[in-house]
Amino acid sequence: MTAEYVPSARALAAVRPLLRTLASARQVYALYPAGHPNRDTTIREVFEGIRRLIDAQDAVPVIFAARSSFYLGTSLLAKESLSLFKLIETFEHAGIEALEVLPETSEEDVNTLILALHGEHPVTERLGGFVINRVKPTLSGHEERQHRLAELRKAYSSGLDVLRDSAVRVAAGEPVDLDEATSVVESIADKVISDPSHALLLTTVKSYDEYTFYHMVNVCMLSVALAHAIGLHRDQIVTLGIGALLHDVGKVHMPEDVLFHVGKLSEEQWRIVQKHPVDGAGLIFSTREGLYHPAASVVLEHHSGFELGGYPSLHHRHNPSVPARLVSVADCFDAVTSKRSYRAPAERREALHILDAGSGKGFDPRFVRIFVRLLGLFPVGSLVELDNGEVGLVVDNAEGELARPTVMMVMDADGNPVSDGEERDLSARGGDGEHLWGVRRSIDPADFGVDVMQLLTTGDLDEAREVVQEEPTGLVHEPSHGEDLPDDYVDTHAHGHSHDHIDGEVDPDVAPPFAGE
Quick one: which of 321, 339, 337, 394 has its CA closest to 218? Predict the structure, then answer.
């Protein structure tokens, strides 16, 4: 038997919070013994999620854990596969590939399932209202792409877990675990170096309930890809990547009413925002490596600006460190392509124009040039309309012809979705020597109502449009060099946010040498 049903939009909307609740349940059962009221609360929350899922789907819903990803029926749950990778591993470790949810499922059945996932109950074919592995998935193609993205998702998800753990540790007054961060960045670096194009595609993912964490991982992956393109050695890339992963770690101290503020910020609120590099560097300094960890300069200096017009003020320096200058380029690109409290997200091509406008002032012009070449004139992850009316998703760029990327076709000239995963190299020429296709214009995925992450992993335009979109209010993030300042912006960093506020001075000589330093 196979599960070939296509879930409804209501079912997809119901399964996403259910999986997140199930992930929390796994943690609760690890922390609290049987009979503890926290377990009872978790059981009720999972059960309520299951009832919503059953009510939303006419057919018996089946959740698959396959190909290192979650599916509901035939639909890939792309973001949940990214953010809940530990839950996927729990399913795989328990041997649960398919979970049928029957209408008679009870709260006691939920308890049994969680115990089975936690290793406290044997996994059998029937766990009350749950049927295990009776059906097999019938999944779509794109095998090679999905395999490569699954490996990258695992590294990405590990980065999220490190940052979540770091936030918990900081809240408890404990130091950030730099060894754990190093291990994760080594994995990210290896994956990105071996497959830069798919890594750049993965950085299109945004999450506004954990914006800071996703932003930090995106900046890490973009920075690693840029460092590789520049020609840095692997050990230098890893060192830089640690700073990139932790560049906004100071924001864990930021009050939520500032980070999620809607409307005009006060001068004091902007002062809190602009203090996060100093706070973050302090967290790095408090580790056993102290001032000698090279990630500290990235955390401290990523907003200082190429010509030192940013914050904090750097004394006796002509420029920030090379790693900080590189990370600031990646930081700007991901920030301006995200929704902020004062501005809609920029389309990816527009973001490159913002970087170019800030080149030589806020950003090192050499790194901006290489970053633009890396992403292409039509950046990886962009939607483009071809001159024949077809629409494709940019998945790769050729070094020699930046205006002619490789695209995955998603719509034909008549507006019909294309789901066979065809990739087309726009630099290809016909027998007469002329190019076969060209790009007419770039399309903002938001205007198209498309979830890029879902599109690139499934190749199905209809499915990417049916993904329930978050309604973010936007996050507070400092405007970037090259952007027009928002009306409510208050420049507070000119009033002494300097290294003088930190116990110690970052010595640029303690870091390993970087090209151009």
Answer: 337
Q: Can you tell me the distance from the alpha carbon of 362 to that of 394, in angstroms, rounded to the nearest whole number?
A: 28
Round to whole Å and give the CA distance between 3 and 97.
12
Q: d(Cα 160, Cα 154) in Å, to the nearest integer?
A: 10
Distance CA 135, CA 71 (A): 13
Quote the Cα angle for 234-237-239, to 5°. 110
- Whether the pLDDT of residue 500 is over 60: the answer is no
pLDDT of residue 323: 94
Return d(Cα 447, Cα 310) in angstroms, integer. Answer: 33
Distance from C-alpha of 460 to C-alpha of 479, rounded to nearest angstrom: 35
Of 201, 59, 197, 69, which is closest to residue 135 (Cα–Cα)? 59
Q: Which amino acid is at 245?
A: L
What is the C-alpha to C-alpha distance for residues 227 and 323, in angstroms, rounded to an integer? 9
**What residues contact residue 300 under an 8 Å CB cut-off, 6+ apart?**
277, 278, 280, 281, 312, 324, 499, 502, 506
281 alpha carbon, distance to own chain's centre: 23
Please state, in angstroms and as integers, the Cα–Cα distance from residue 421 to each residue in 151, 203, 212, following that order. 19, 20, 32
pLDDT at position 318 is 78
What is the number of alpha carbons within 13 Å of residue 461 lying toward its C-beta?
21
pLDDT confidence bin for 490, thresholds 50/70/90 = confident
Q: What is the pLDDT of residues 286-344, one digit of tens each?
A: 876 655 688 899 999 999 999 988 888 887 677 899 999 999 999 999 999 888 777 77
SS3 at position 151? helix
Q: How many CB atoms lie within 10 A of CB 94?
A: 18
Cα–Cα distance for residue pair 455/78, rounded to 1 Å: 9
Q: What phi and psi, each to the nearest 5 degrees, are found at residue 396?
A: -165, 160
Pairing, β 423-425 against β 62-66: unpaired
Query: Which run of H or E residues covers position 91?
Result: helix 85-94
Q: What is the rounded distance in angstroms from the CA atom of residue 255 to the CA atom of residue 295?
A: 24
Model pTM? 0.78
CA neighbor of 196 nearest in space, from 236, 220, 224: 224
- Specify the DSSP element, H or E, that contains 85: helix 85-94
Q: Tell how strand 439-443 and strand 383-386 pair up.
A: antiparallel
| E strand or H helix that includes residue 31 | helix 9-31
* DSSP H helices in 172-266: 178-194, 196-202, 211-230, 234-245, 256-259
Q: Are 324 and 305 in contact (CB under 8 A)?
A: no
For 440, counting Cβ atoms within 10 Å of its Cβ (0-12 exposed, 13-18 middle, 19+ buried), the class is middle
The pair of three-digit structure tokens given for residue 488, joined into one six-digit string = 């409510």
Token digits of residue 472: 């973010």
Q: Is the pLDDT of residue 514 over 60?
A: no
* SS3 state at 412: coil
